[in-house]
Automatic annotation (TrEMBL):
One Pfam family per UniProt: Sulfatase
Domain (Sulfatase N-terminal) ranges: 37-370
The name this protein goes by in its record: Arylsulfatase A-like enzyme
Keyword Nucleus: no
GO molecular function: arylsulfatase activity
Keyword annotations from UniProtKB, A to Z: Hydrolase
Length: 477
């Protein structure tokens, strides 16, 4: 009888200790989850390096983005994944540069003429953050599911999606339909040709606000992918008022595929300022919810600008850089980048750390307390964000490839050196410390350095049947 009582007491103690242990572990897990920052990655579409005030813009008003810069950290050497939308976004999501990414060009620029999406084997930053307990959302332009298959956001780690799966529908600000998760919804009264109905930018902003309201009690990742200021140029008349009667020359826009408003300069500026205002409202929302101190906000653009006429610049959208969208010169791939995180990132700081879109995935993973589960090209810039420069690992070099009408083009940046190569032409070499505008090709002056970077150009990619580096023409559908 005594033996039975002893055994019963031992079993009770085991159960009690096990319960206490589980509760302690649960508390530890809850503390760990609570300490993870919310992450909001805001991506403008075709916004130039010089289109924001903190990079010298003096015509377009961007006070809220400039406030993020003044109270956060500006990266002066940050690069996009590519010089056009699709591959740049694929690189951002997967942490692999265009020499290794599944998507290396926009939908129609494949060998077969059929679009290529990211696939089931690709591991996105959303999938990684799901492992760390995050709720994940993408609102706006996705552009990596042309085939509406494995590339769909809800199949790539996102709990919630509202926006454009494909590129062409995202060209219009009054679309007839929009996707919410995997359901295609009709927007009543919208006509992309007459620009009647609801301007999609406002719906995107509304859904971003709703996502934060609904998911702010636990760590969340919001990829807010605006379509502004991508062509077509159109915005509500009330947004243009601040730019009227300033004596600006008129740049008349002719509607075609893109249903532009007539006055390009005023419309472009008003679009950017509208986005800026709504970013400011998002920041106010975070502050009102008590989330600002535990939220990392990143703002950047997917590639260089398209609007500003390089022959007759008005906004100086690419700053001191050469080229714009579809170039692998600096103007096509270096874009504005600011990171804001109160009491974590030093206010008013700048860094010349050389980084790129493929670094975001490992950065998010590090901040979430996990390691990337796939082989990637990116290096976390979390040490730089947190002021631990002595712990910051650096890239040996950065690599890009791009193949549309002028292609194939490849580029490499290593330290202050930049190499650009067009198809079978000799490699171009630039010293960015002395020649930020890439005006003086010094390949003959520094042949050994040119050969060193050419080696990286020739040995930094895996073959992809849909994206061979051979001259191609656009296949007609």
């Amino acid at each position: 009888m005594k033996l039975k009582l002893i055994i019963l007491n031992i079993l009770c103690m085991v159960l009690i200790l096990g319960t206490i242990s589980c509760k302690i572990k649960q508390v530890d897990v809850e503390k760990e989850v609570a300490s993870k920052p919310n992450i909001i990655f805001i991506l403008a579409d075709d916004l130039g390096y010089g289109d924001v005030g903190f990079n010298g813009q003096d015509k377009i008003k961007t006070p809220n983005i400039d406030k993020l810069a003044a109270n956060g950290m500006v990266f002066t050497n940050h690069y996009t994944g590519s010089t056009v939308c699709g591959p740049s976004r694929a690189v951002l999501m997967t942490g692999k540069h265009t020499g290794h990414a599944t998507v290396r060009g926009n939908p129609r620029w494949t060998a077969s003429g059929n679009p290529v999406d990211i696939n089931a084997e690709d591991v996105t930053v959303a999938e990684e953050l799901k492992r760390a307990g995050y709720t994940t959302g993408i609102i706006g332009k996705w552009g990596l599911a042309e085939n509406l298959g494995d590339g769909l956001p809800n199949k790539q780690g996102f709990d919630y999606f509202y926006g454009f799966n494909q590129h062409s529908p995202a060209h219009h600000y009054y679309p007839k339909t929009i996707f919410e998760n995997e359901n295609e919804l009709t927007i009543e009264g919208n006509d992309p040709q007459t620009k009647e109905g609801q301007h999609i930018h406002y719906l995107i902003t509304e859904k971003a606000t709703e996502f934060i309201d609904k998911n702010h009690k636990a760590p969340f990742f919001l990829y807010l992918s605006y379509t502004i200021p991508h062509f077509e140029l159109t915005i509500l008349e009330k947004e243009k008022e601040q730019y009227k009667n300033l004596g600006w020359p008129k740049r008349k826009m002719t509607p075609g595929h893109y249903r532009h408003d007539e006055d390009g300069h005023i419309t472009y500026a008003a679009m950017v300022s509208t986005m800026d205002r709504d970013i400011g409202n998002l920041l106010k929302q975070l502050e009102s919810l008590g989330l600002a101190d535990n939220t990392l906000i990143v703002f950047t653009s997917d590639n260089g600008h398209e609007y500003d006429d390089l022959q007759n610049e008005f906004f100086n959208s690419n700053g001191d850089f050469k080229g714009h969208k579809r170039d692998l010169y600096e103007g096509g791939i270096r874009t504005p980048f600011v990171a804001y995180w109160p009491n974590k990132i030093k206010a008013g700081s700048k860094t010349n750390h050389i980084s790129a879109f493929w670094d975001f995935l490992p950065t998010a993973c590090e901040l979430a307390g996990i390691r990337p589960s796939d082989k990637i090209d990116g290096i976390s810039y979390a040490p730089t964000l947190l002021g631990n420069d002595n712990q910051q690992e650096k890239h040996n070099y950065l690599y890009w490839e791009f193949n549309e009408r002028q292609g194939p083009i490849q580029a490499v940046r290593k330290d202050n050196w930049k190499a650009v190569k067009f198809d079978k032409k000799p490699v171009e070499l630039y010293d960015l410390n002395q020649d930020i505008s890439e005006q003086i090709n010094v390949a003959e002056q520094y042949p050994e350095k040119a050969q060193e970077l050419l080696h990286f150009i020739n040995n930094s990619r895996t073959e992809h049947p849909e994206f061979p580096l051979v001259k191609k023409t656009l296949k007609k559908k």
